Structure to design on (1533 residues):
């Protein structure tokens, strides 16, 4: 099972040698010239002494002097090679005056560790975009995803959880998979990791590279379909040892809250709603008299306490009771040194994020050790090892929503168990102030370690073996005190939960790679073999009945409701075998070709379907290196093309089998199906990706531009689909169809002004994609997403329709708010039990059959943005610099359940001030439905009436920093000192009516003001 | 050099192909049995069948357990719930919300098929099994019984339904089958159950021969004419066996039937077992109790949230136009009229629906929870087949087969005698000269008095053709809406089923219903 047989190798070598013989010995006429010049560093413009300056292919050479100067004699057609430790080697054609600036190696990390092999970044021929530590340090962030937000074309990062330590969703090139594994994989120093990406300290990251197309992701075969995010941690830099310390402190607050109706407005609305309902049934009655009864004793619309609050003119804001300002801080100290034979990098990090909700908090302690050392001239070992510990305090999930939507007519009271409306307690509305006493804690330890040994028996040949571990344990603790509604409702008498999870993932990779250049032919190739195994287990105990709340979740032995004990545990292992072969070839750095093949076997699929082959081919042409391009004022012009297949195996374990588990019920064990029909025919999801790209650099590289176009055919889409229960099962995992995803990405960087004292640069990226479902299984043209309270409602989102976007919104179409004049027209339409009065919503009878039924539901929009991206700009005047980062998103639609709920118009629940402009007989020109209580009309959420536009422009960061002058720094015995202030999420321009077009409706987004310092010794 | 290089490559290849690949990527579930394993041995099939009893039982708990009882002449939704949930309200209102997209009904449809299907797999697997035959046969009887009971319930409400038979899956698929096939299939299953089930089981969750006989009798009695399976004589004979040889008897005190300390009595032919510990509680009190009491105390055992309350007809006396005669002890055991709690009568919150302190269903009250547990944890057993029901059915078949006086005598001497605590007054004694037609009318009221809220009413109304007439008269919401039609004798096939089942299309919908 190998691509690489000995016979094949020999043959292949013969071919290569043949090519070399054909091309390499060309002879030109030669003249002697004197070459002189100066070598400086690109960034600091300081002279570099001791640079080796050699004439390529000869023994002639010299070193630069202390001013970086050199002079030598050579032939006119020769190539001069500049080499210095810590800098990228440069080769330039000889000329009489050669002023050369060398790029420090650290800023242009040449190598990146992919699966068990280190390859040159430029060999990742496909569509790759990334950022480096310089960009990361511009923003005070605590996790990897925040650092990428708005910075990389084709990568959509959305913060949708503002809780401290909260997660971020990330999509590379839109959606490619439906449900399983829509997120990219993360590869940290060669180790593929899953989940909990916020355990990685962004300060330790040297570069993040996002592999977007199959020619790049093919290396990850079965796991690369949704993009790959390569994270390379820092290494010790050559030269003098460095100590660096950076820290920032920020104050966080919610950007805005919705404008909720206050107590008086709620009363007015409810009166209107009740009166409208009453008048519908009694058209000739006295409306005002009825309203007066509602405001009197024994009101059917108000609790006595509500009326008392109303009469006192008060209004209560429950949200204020549970929110606070969040203080965040982050400290990182790093120690590094590099030398001829090795380097070391050690860092320590501490992050403390106070949440915006009382009792919520997130802390992370971490450390990183990166070492590499040559043991023998031909043998090197190294490790990249990081440890992190996170400690979280949770607030109960429902608290924010309950508090935000609490009744403003209800006086703040921490004694009541449930909140109420109309004096009726709702057992779902747990008093949020009391809920703060729920003791929720999360603790996590993680060790990520990648270790390798490389032998280089002959130059260019690397034999590498690497073993990596991701060891993670996570504890979750929770205690619900006895007198809370959450406990009373279910008679827990105090409820303690302990959940302990543990992951042990290992990856063993072995590779042989070979680099060789013959003249202008540059060749590299590798073969590798890897084993990966992921082990997971958990156990959970829920115990009830505690004599005292004092011990919280800590003493389960004291729980007396033994019958209510619940135990849970599971053990899951899955494994992957992979073979990779990859060949790179370029001719004269002009023509590039990369051929990759990966062959994966996965335990997630049944016999006969375990193995998948994922090939790719990438080609590139650097036109600017062509001789006909000489004299044209273009610094770089490169065309790229790539085609490949990537896979997705990220489905639940054992989806190919129907499973039964023992369930203990009523004193005996029974076997119960988990409801999923095993599908032995499951196969890999396969993405065939084509990528075309161009890179251009103009005006001495001050203007650079790159564009990519991609087409992705995703076949055998994996999805969980619900089944007719007559099958005996509720759902199955299936390869349900095909998806076509097309798009473009642009990236422009411009150094607009580049003077000694004043610099201004600007970068912008824009991405756009469109997806369409091109095939569904069998002859079906729709797969519906059922859900809701009973699990049988067709949902508005998550349905799949042939020839529509994956992210369609499906519902009835809103026609208009009914006016008196419409009633005649619609009187014969069957609204399925509903009655429409003036001021109510009229849905469109799409098929005109005078009946609103399932056939009138249509796709009314899609959630995909038309385009999205970010831009950033940097002004630097002397030591002062101002940096701004923006994100934008245009043309997407979304359902805001929150906003729809607030438009209910009954005054019996929370409302939003838009309702003040509602339809009334006097205000018929309104687009807000009339007030009404009870059911029987179309609700706001039943049509596309309130579908929101998610376009936005956000200033993600504005940062002002000052770099202290060299003189000052030296006096203070430092190597650098920078201070800055940053504002995050200072403003967002959007029409979205919920909390945030990006973050959704769980919480408002937060903004933060930060002050920080970077100091180096 | 070349040789050295080749050797390295060779070593590498050996590593690659070292044989254990397949093993490495074969992971079996460590904490679950596969379907093959489950159906392979009786030791696994038996707990699976126990699991089916539990799944079947779970269709009878909580809200779902009462969906079919609402919209009848004995019970209706509470006023607060009926105005807050249009779709659920449609069950009582028989309006446009009682349609294919009615989620309350779809939930009932969906919860039953997996049980039927798993029972069918058991029946099929046992056919291939060669283990000890006695144990195997009992399990076969049980699986047949469960499949029959659920299929019977489904066809009563939905009419033509799929037949799930593993052996004939290719032929039947999952399309709707004619009524005669459906009923013949049910009867065949029950005949097997009668044949194989033991007379008694120590585990009271498990079905017995008597249960199978009783149910088979009911199937003959309840089968619609169109099925060709309706047969009063066969029903009578089956009931006769249960009544005379089943070993069952009425408990002397009607009140004892509802005492949680006295479960699985001689009167119980089959009952669903619950207790006060989640997930074996049944939440019925949460649904049946009064919101006014819940407001006072969540641990008051007759508090709840008024999902379903008795109709006026069902709680009033004959003097007021209701069903109850003087002195019938069943009235106060079945229905709660008094809401005094800890010496106080709660006041009605004016913002409530208005019927929170009207009479409520009492049969499911679980006094064991009082003061210590939320009524959510109520967990009394719920009757499925009760001897009193079989006596009533038996009398009915006697009447239908021309033995009216014998039927009257049976009712007087058993059901009604107990209803007056063993001492039936002469004026409450049914007249032996009662006409066959009068008996039909009277037995329906007697069934309500004896069996109200126990889950048979809708079927009784459907089989006697009285659903439309009586629901319109007696159910407040049905009356108010006025839209009930003959076609409402069946429920609509859920929209989800039509969309997901390749064998059922829109045109297969029950008549009268639109697919909205």
């Amino acid at each position: 099972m190998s691509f690489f047989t000995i016979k094949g190798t020999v043959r292949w070598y013969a071919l290569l040698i043949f090519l070399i013989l054909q091309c390499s010995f060309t002879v030109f006429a030669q003249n002697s010239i004197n070459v002189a010049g100066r070598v400086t560093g690109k960034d600091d413009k300081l002279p570099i002494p001791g640079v080796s300056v050699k004439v390529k292919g000869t023994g002639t050479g010299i070193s630069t002097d202390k001013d970086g100067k050199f002079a030598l004699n050579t032939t006119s057609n020769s190539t001069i090679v500049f080499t210095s430790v810590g800098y990228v080697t440069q080769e330039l054609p000889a000329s009489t005056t050669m002023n050369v600036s060398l790029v420090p190696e650290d800023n242009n990390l040449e190598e990146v560790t992919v699966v068990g092999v280190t390859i040159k970044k430029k060999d990742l021929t496909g569509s790759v975009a990334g950022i480096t530590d310089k960009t990361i340090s511009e923003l005070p962030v605590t996790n990897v995803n925040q650092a990428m937000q708005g910075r990389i074309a084709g990568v959509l990062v959305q913060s949708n959880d503002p809780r401290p330590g909260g997660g971020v969703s990330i999509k590379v090139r839109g959606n490619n998979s439906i449900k399983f594994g829509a997120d990219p994989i993360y590869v940290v120093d060669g180790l593929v990791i899953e989940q909990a990406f916020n355990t990685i300290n962004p300060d330790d990251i040297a570069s993040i590279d996002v592999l977007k197309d199959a020619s790049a992701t093919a290396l990850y075969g079965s796991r690369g379909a949704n993009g790959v995010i390569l994270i390379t941690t820092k290494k010790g830099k050559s030269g003098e040892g460095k100590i660096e310390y950076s820290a920032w402190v920020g104050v966080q607050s919610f950007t805005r809250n919705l404008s909720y109706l206050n107590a008086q407005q709620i009363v007015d609305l409810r009166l209107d709603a009740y009166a409208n309902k009453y008048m519908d049934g009694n058209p000739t009655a006295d409306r005002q008299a009825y309203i007066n009864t509602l405001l009197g004793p024994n009101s059917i619309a108000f609790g006595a306490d509500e009326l008392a609050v109303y009469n006192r003119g008060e209004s209560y804001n429950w949200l204020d009771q549970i929110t606070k300002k969040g203080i965040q801080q982050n400290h990182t100290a790093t120690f590094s040194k590099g030398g001829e034979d090795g380097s070391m990098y050690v860092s320590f990090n501490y992050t403390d994020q106070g949440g915006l909700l009382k009792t919520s908090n997130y802390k992370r302690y971490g450390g990183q050790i990166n070492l590499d050392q040559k043991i023998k001239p031909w043998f090197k070992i190294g490790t990249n090892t990081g440890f992190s510990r996170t400690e979280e305090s949770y607030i109960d999930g429902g608290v924010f929503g309950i508090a935000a939507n609490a009744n403003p007519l209800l006086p703040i009271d921490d004694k009541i168990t449930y909140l109420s409306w109309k004096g009726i307690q709702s057992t779902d509305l747990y008093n949020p102030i009391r809920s703060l006493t729920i003791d929720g804690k999360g603790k996590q330890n993680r060790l990520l370690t990648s270790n390798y040994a490389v032998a280089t028996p002959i130059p260019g040949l690397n034999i590498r073996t690497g073993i990596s571990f991701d060891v993670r344990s996570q504890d979750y603790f929770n205690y619900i005190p006895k007198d809370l509604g959450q406990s009373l409702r279910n008679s827990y008498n105090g409820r303690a939960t302990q959940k302990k999870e543990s992951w042990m993932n290992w990856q063993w990779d072995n590779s042989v790679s070979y680099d060789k250049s013959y003249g202008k032919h540059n060749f590299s190739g590798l073969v590798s073999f890897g084993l990966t195994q992921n082990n997971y287990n958990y156990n959970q105990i829920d115990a009830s009945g505690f004599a005292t709340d004092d011990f919280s979740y800590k003493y389960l032995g004291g729980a007396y409701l033994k019958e209510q004990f619940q135990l849970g545990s599971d053990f899951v292992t899955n494994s992957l075998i992979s073979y990779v072969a990859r060949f790179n070839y370029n001719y004269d750095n002009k023509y590039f070709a990369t051929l990759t093949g990966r062959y994966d076997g996965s335990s997630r699929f049944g016999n006969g379907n375990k193995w998948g082959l994922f090939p790719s081919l990438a080609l590139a042409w650097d036109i600017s290196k062509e001789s006909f391009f000489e004299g044209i004022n273009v610094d770089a012009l490169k065309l790229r093309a790539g085609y490949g297949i990537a896979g997705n195996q990220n489905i639940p374990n054992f989806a190919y089998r129907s499973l039964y588990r023992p369930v203990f019920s009523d004193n005996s064990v029974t076997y119960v199906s988990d409801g999923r029909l095993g599908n032995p025919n499951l196969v890999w999801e396969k993405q065939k990706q084509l990528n075309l790209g161009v890179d251009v650099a103009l005006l001495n590289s001050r203007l650079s531009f790159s564009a990519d176009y991609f087409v992705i055919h995703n076949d055998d889409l994996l999805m969980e689909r619900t089944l007719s229960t007559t099958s005996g099962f509720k759902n199955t995992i299936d390869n349900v169809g095909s998806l076509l995803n097309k798009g473009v990405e642009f990236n422009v960087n411009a150094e607009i002004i580049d003077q000694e004292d004043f610099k201004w640069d600007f970068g912008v990226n824009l991405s756009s994609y469109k997806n369409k479902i091109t095939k569904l299984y069998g002859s079906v043209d729709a797969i519906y997403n059922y859900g809701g309270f009973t699990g049988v409602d067709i949902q508005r989102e998550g349905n799949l329709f042939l020839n529509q976007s994956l992210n369609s919104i499906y519902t009835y179409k809103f026609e208009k708010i009914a006016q008196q004049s419409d009633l005649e027209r619609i009187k014969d339409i069957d609204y399925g039990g509903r009655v429409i009065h003036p001021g109510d919503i009229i849905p469109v009878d799409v098929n005109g059959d005078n009946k609103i039924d399932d056939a009138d539901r249509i796709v009314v929009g899609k959630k995909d943005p038309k385009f999205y991206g970010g831009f950033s700009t940097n002004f630097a005047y002397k030591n002062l610099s101002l940096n701004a980062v923006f994100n934008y998103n245009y043309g997407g639609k979304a359902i805001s359940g929150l906003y729809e709920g607030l438009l209910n118009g009954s005054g019996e629940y929370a409302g939003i001030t838009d309702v003040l402009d509602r339809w009334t007989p006097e205000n018929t020109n309104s687009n807000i439905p009339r007030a009404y209580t009870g059911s029987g009309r179309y609700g706001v959420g039943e049509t596309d009436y309130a579908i929101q536009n998610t376009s936005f422009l956000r200033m993600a960061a504005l940062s002002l920093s000052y770099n202290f002058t060299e003189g000052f720094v030296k006096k203070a015995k430092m190597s650098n000192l920078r201070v800055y202030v940053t504002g995050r999420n200072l403003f967002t321009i959007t029409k979205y009516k919920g909390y945030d077009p990006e973050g959704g409706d769980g919480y408002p987004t937060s903004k933060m003001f930060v002050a920080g310092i970077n100091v180096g010794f | 050099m070349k040789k050295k290089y080749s050797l390295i490559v060779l070593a590498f290849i050996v590593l690659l192909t070292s044989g254990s690949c397949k093993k490495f990527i074969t992971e079996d579930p460590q904490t679950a049995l596969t379907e093959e394993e489950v159906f392979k041995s009786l030791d696994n099939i038996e707990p699976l069948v126990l699991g089916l009893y539990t799944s079947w039982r779970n269709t009878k708990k909580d809200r779902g357990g009462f969906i079919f009882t609402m919209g009848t002449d004995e019970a209706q939704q509470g006023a607060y719930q009926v105005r807050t949930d249009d779709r659920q309200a449609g069950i009582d209102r028989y309006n446009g919300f009682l349609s294919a997209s009615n989620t309350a009904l779809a939930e009932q449809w969906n919860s039953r098929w997996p049980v039927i299907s798993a029972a069918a797999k058991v029946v099929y697997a046992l056919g291939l099994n060669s283990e000890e035959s006695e144990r195997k046969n009992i399990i076969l009887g049980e699986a047949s019984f469960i499949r029959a009971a659920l299929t019977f319930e489904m066809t009563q409400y939905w009419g033509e339904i799929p037949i799930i038979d593993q052996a004939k899956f290719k032929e039947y698929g999952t399309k709707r089958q004619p009524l005669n096939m459906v009923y013949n299939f049910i009867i065949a299953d029950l005949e097997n159950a009668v044949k194989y089930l033991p007379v008694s089981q120590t585990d009271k969750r498990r079905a017995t021969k008597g249960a199978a006989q009783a149910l088979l009798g009911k199937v003959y009695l309840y089968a619609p004419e169109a099925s060709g399976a309706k047969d009063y004589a066969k029903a009578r004979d089956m009931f006769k066996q249960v009544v005379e040889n089943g070993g069952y008897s009425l408990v002397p005190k009607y009140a004892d039937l509802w005492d949680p300390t006295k479960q699985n009595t001689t009167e119980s032919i089959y009952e669903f077992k619950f207790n006060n510990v989640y997930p074996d509680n049944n939440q019925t009190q949460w649904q049946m109790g009064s919101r006014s009491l819940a407001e006072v105390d969540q641990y008051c055992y007759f508090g709840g949230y008024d999902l379903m309350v008795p109709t006026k007809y069902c709680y009033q006396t004959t003097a007021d136009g209701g069903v109850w005669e003087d002195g019938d002890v069943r009235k106060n055991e079945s229905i709660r009229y008094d809401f005094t709690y800890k010496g106080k009568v709660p006041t009605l919150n004016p913002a409530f629906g208005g019927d929170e302190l009207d009479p409520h269903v009492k049969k499911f009250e679980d006094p064991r929870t009082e003061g210590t547990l939320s009524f959510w944890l109520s967990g009394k057993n719920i009757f499925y087949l009760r001897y009193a029901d079989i006596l009533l059915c038996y009398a009915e078949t006697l009447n239908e087969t021309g033995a009216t006086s014998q039927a009257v005598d049976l009712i007087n001497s058993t059901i009604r005698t107990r209803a007056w605590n063993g001492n039936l007054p002469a004026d409450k004694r049914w007249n032996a000269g009662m006409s066959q037609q009068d008996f039909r009318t009277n037995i329906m009221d007697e069934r309500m008095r004896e069996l109200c809220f126990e889950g048979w009413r809708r079927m009784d109304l459907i089989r006697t053709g009285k659903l439309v007439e009586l629901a319109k008269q007696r159910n407040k919401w049905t009356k108010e809406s006025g839209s009930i039609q003959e076609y409402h004798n069946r429920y609509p096939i859920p929209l989800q089923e039509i969309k997901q089942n390749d064998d059922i299309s829109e045109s297969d919908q029950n008549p009268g219903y639109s697919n909205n």
Observations:
- The first strand of chain A starts at residue 32 and ends at 41.
- The CA atoms of residues 89 and 534 of chain A lie 41 Å apart.
- Chain A has 13 helices and 55 strands.
